[in-house]
Each structure stands twice: as C-alpha cells, then as structure tokens.
Amino acid sequence: MGAPLAIEAKSLHKTYGGLFGPRQRALAGLDLAVARGEAFGLIGPNGAGKTTFIKILLGIARPTTGEVKLLGGDPEAVETRRRVGYLPERLHLPHAWTPPAFLASVARLKGVAHPPRALLELLGRVGLADDAQRKIGGFSKGMRQRLGLAAALIGSPELLVLDEPTDGIDPLGRMEVRKLLMEELARGATLFLNSHLLAETERVCGRVGILSHGRVLREGRLEDLCQSSAYYRVRFAPGSDAVALEAAGFLPGREAGAWRCEADTPQKLNEALDRARRSGALLVEVAREEKDLEEVLQEAVRGASPAPPAREAAA
Amino acid sequence: MRTMLAVAADLIREATKRKWFLGLAIAITAVLVTLSLSLRMDVVDGALAATRLFGKLTRGPIQSVDVALRPVFMAVAAVVFYGGSVFGIIACADFAPTLLSPGRIEHLLALPVRRWQLLAGTFLGVLALSLAAALYGSGGLIVLLGVKTGLWTWRPLVAGLLSSVSFAAVYAAMLTASLYARSASVSAAIGFVVFISGIVSGFRYDLIPMFEPGVGRTLFTGYTMLFPRISALAGAAMDIAGYRPLQVHSLWSLLAGMLVFGGGVLTLGIWRFEQKDF
C-alpha cells in the first residue's frame, strides 16, 4: 500500500460554457496524485488549466466528469476543507479592516480559536507585525499576499494550496516566504504550489507536474525531470587540444572550457574520456547535464498537442 | 448557525465602515438630537396645550396627546417604510456583488463554510442592518416624544418591524439577481423593480378597473400577483403607528405574501449558488 494521498485526481475533465456560448475545455483527463507531506509544484503556460484544477480541488468549481479527492475525502465536505489552507491568486481583501480583524474573521469561519496574541504572532511570521494596526486598503500587493498567506496558515492546515504565493513580493520577502513554507513542510504539512516563478518552484518543491492543454504532460521528482538522459558536462584542464577533443566525440559547451559528451551508457562515457586523455587532455570535472525547469517546461509544452474537441471528451 | 451568524457579523462590520451607513446613522442621530433640543411640548392633564419648534409656536387645536401625535407617528412610519426601503436598495446593492467578487468568493468557498450559509448569512446581515436602522429611528422618536409628553407607545416600533419585513423581501430578490449578474447596478435595478411593482401591487384592486377587460387587464393582474403588496403593508404599518383600524383585510396574509415571495426568491438564489462554478 502506498503513502496516503493528500490529493488524488482521476480522469478529470472540465468544460466551461455551452448552451448558447462556445464550449471551452479547461481540463482534459487530468490524473494526479500528491502524497501527504510532500511539496508539489504545478507549472504550465497561461490557460493550461492550473487555476481550474485548484478550484475543482477545493470544491469551488465542479468537474464535468472525473473524480477528485482531497485528504482522502470529498473536497466539498466542510470537515475536509477545515484541514486545508488556501491562498487564491488574487485575494480580494476588505479595505477598511485591519489585518487582525481579517484574520479573526477567517479564524471564526474556520471554527478555530483566535486569541489576539496568536493572530499577532501569525502576522509576525509573514512579516506584517509592524503593520498590524494599518488598514488593509493601504497595503501594497506584496503585503496583501503576505496577509493572504497568514490567513491560509490559520489552524495549522494539513494541506496548503497556494496559487502564486510570492506574486508581488520582493526578493527578500520571497526568501522569508520560502523559509516559512519550509517550516510548514517540516511540520508535516503538504504543499501544493502553483507558480509562474519556476525558480521558486524549483527551490521549494520536491516534485513537479507540468500541465498543458488541461493534461499533466510530465510529472515526477525534480531531479528526474531535469536530468538529461544522454548528455554529460565535461571540463578539461586549460591547454587541451580542442581539435583532438572534438575528434574524440566531445562537443563545445556553452561556457568557455566546457564540453558536452553524449553517452547513453557509462561504458560509452568512459571510452570517450579515455580517447580524450590519450590526446593529452586532463579531466577536471564531469557531471550529468541537468536542464533547468524552464527548459523542461519548454520541452514538454512544445511537444504537447491540444486536446481533442470538447464534445468528444464530454461524451 | 454559528457560521451563518459569523458571515452576518462580518457583513455588519463591513457596513459600519461604509460612508452610506455612517451617513444614515449620523442623519438619524442628528434629526433626533435636533428635535430633542428644539422641540418643546406643553402637556396639561394629558392634553397637548402648546408645541414650540425652534421657539416658534405651532398652531393647532388643544387635543389629547395620543390623538395629537397620531399624524406624527403615521408620517414617521411612512418615512421609515418608503425612505428606508429606497435607502436600503441603494446602500445594500453591492453587498452581494462584493461577496461574489473574484478573489473573495474563492477564498470564502475554500473555507469550511457551506454555500447556503454564506448566502443566508449575507441575507441575515442585511436584515439586521435594516432592523437596526428602523428600530433606531422609530425607537429614538418614541423615547424623545415619550420624555416630552409622557406618552409611551410600541406602535412605531411595530411599523418599523414591518418595514424591515418588506425590505427583506426586496433584498431577497436583489441577492438572487446578483447570482445571475454580478453587478451592483443590476442588483439595485431589480430592487427598484420589485419595490415599485410591490407598491403598484398594493393598489391592484384600485387600478384594475382602469384596464379594459381582456388581455391587458389579465396581464396587469398576473404581473402584480407576482409581487408582494408592499404599499398595502406600508398602509398597515401607518395604521398601526397612527392608532387607526387596519384598512387591509388581513395583516397576516400580507406578511405571508412577503414570506412566500422572499423565501421563494431566496431559495432560487441558494439553488443557483449551489450549482454555480466560480
């Protein structure tokens, strides 16, 4: 039996519109499983269906067909949602309220005790302790985002669903948020992150899913996704004979002094290295070439084809 | 129930920060304070002998206090009923659209709150605001006139309650309209349509003879039957406030009409809300 799942989606389809307007497919058979206690990042181009998936996950929208489970239960069940913290992409906050008043309101609706000191501590965790008495209307985008994050953390939820959590936050603030998310992870919470900031996703998430045209194109551990299967990055000591290295099967790398070597087995890699050494080159460094998440995303999306027309999937 | 009350309390908290409601509270208070300082009423043996407003003697026959104050109470009931409803339609028009605004509704729906509780809580909050304003205005006047004349009556309070019942029916339609078109203007427009149609509906039997028998009369009768008889309830409120026998056949049937209309429209709203994707 596998680890208990925080999120489980099976053959999820979602089509908007119809009747009088055009039908628009947002999800086209999405399958995804996220284990409890892990940090999962969902990435993809605009219109890929990320926000729709999050909405279905939280019972804000309903799937056309398919099944979704949240913490093993129904996303629409009150008891399930009590265990979830959510930060929407564009959180609309009451302008005339102060942060503690807003957090107290969220705590009341969550059915969580909210002593003023605990709320102030929470504001301190997101870096808003000094602004506790200010009205939210005067907050910057980043400050609103921090307040939204504080609201998501109320009640120490088992699952945190964060839609663009660092949007509008300055680089130092992002580091603070990252630290906070790591603390939550260490506490045992599951993180489900949707972010356009790929570097952010890379730093926080252990597993990543790439969504495009309403389907998960690739999904797995970050190191597996970013690993290039056949290429190695090789560096030789200065003074190596470039012509001899090319003859030995090495390709010039992007940086000065760096070379690339295609080898699908360790034997082939060592044979190439032996040829280079025979030409007098001295090996300094060899490592499997890794792509960054941006490249992985590009590669995945480029190869993806749009889903078949909505009518077929809905049938 | 606790969740619903929490939603209602949040709405009231938000309303207290709005200029519309601060303005209403200030206006009612200003009228009461001005009257308390500038109105002098001389009562001798239960009769109102003289009334001075801003030091100027107002002419009128010497009457017993309760008779003399009847027109005042009736006028107040009318102002609270009609004026309160118009104010409420304008001031409360954007509560539901704000609740349903992108970024807020998603956040609320992700909380452990049932959809119907959100809508019912919003309705309850507006109802509480309407009651508070009606009772503050009517109650303030009762206290003011009671202190000055020694006449204490509950009647204007009942008239105030009836105005809130009527507004509840109007607001139910406004709330439901917001679920079909998230716009404060649409919500206010629907509120005014129901309010005016409800006034016309109250005079249905006086107006029907003006239509020739046939399609026009049938359509008019059918249309006005859809709406609660707001003007008839306003008349009843004024009758109660003014110690007059009720002109309407049955106050209970009027109230039942309000309940059926408001409850029906609110049920439609809740159904729509339950089905809707955000």
Any descriptors?
heterodimer; A: 315 residues; alpha/beta; Rossmann fold; Alpha-Beta Plaits; six-stranded mixed sheet; four-stranded antiparallel sheet; 12 helices; 13 strands; disordered C terminus; B: 278 residues; alpha+beta; 4 strands; 73% helix; globular
How would you briefly describe this protein structure?
The complex is a heterodimer of chains A (315) and B (278). By secondary structure, chain A is an alpha/beta fold.
Would you mind describing this structure in some detail?
- The complex is a heterodimer of chains A (315) and B (278).
- Chain A has 315 residues and is α/β, with parallel strands linked by helices.
- Chain A has 2 domains: 5-224, P-loop containing nucleotide triphosphate hydrolases (Rossmann fold, 3-Layer(aba) Sandwich); 228-290, Alpha-Beta Plaits, CATH 3.30.70.
- In chain A, 35% of the residues lie in helices and 28% in strands.
- Chain A has 12 helices and 13 strands.
- In chain A, helix 3 (99-110) crosses helix 4 (116-125).
- Mean pLDDT of chain A is 87; it is low at 310-315.
- With 278 residues, chain B is of the alpha+beta class.
- In chain B, strands 1, 2, 3 and 4 form a 4-stranded antiparallel sheet that branches.
- The longest helix of chain B is centred in the middle third of the chain and has 35 residues, at 115-149.
- The mean pLDDT of chain B is 90.
- Chains A and B meet through helix 2 and helix 3 of A and helix 1 and helix 5 of B.
